[in-house]
Write a structure and sequence with these properties.
Number of helices: 5
Largest sheet: none
Order of helices and strands: HHHHH
Oligomer: single chain
Strand content: under 5%
Shape: globular
Radius of gyration: 14 Å
Length: about 100
């Protein structure tokens, strides 16, 4: 997907997609730590989330960028073992509630 295609999507759709990547990041780390996966791809998903946040808030809702940068820092805290998966996902659920 190009940045133009991404930015043509409604903001809530983009946030829902970012939320999905956050979930994949959390799941990848948990599955690796629980021995359910041989590789941990959480860093890949973390960087994808960071890129999508940057892409989203360069044009739309610039005033909300600090909020999402803070949430990215919280995701890093999860990867560092300082925050729980439930804590991270609780914030992002608002963007996927009701999305099928």
């Amino acid at each position: 997907m190009t940045s133009a295609e991404w930015n043509d999507m409604p903001l809530m759709s983009r946030l829902s997609n970012i939320s999905g990547e956050v979930k994949r990041c959390v799941d990848s780390r948990k599955n690796f730590l629980d021995g359910l996966a041989q590789k941990d791809y959480s860093e890949f998903y973390f960087h994808k989330v960071a890129d999508l946040i940057e892409l989203t808030f360069t044009q739309d809702a610039r005033n909300r960028k600090p909020e999402f940068v803070d949430e990215l820092k919280e995701l890093q805290r999860f990867l560092d073992g300082e925050a729980s998966a439930a804590y991270i996902l609780r914030y992002w659920e608002q963007f996927t509630a009701g999305v099928q």
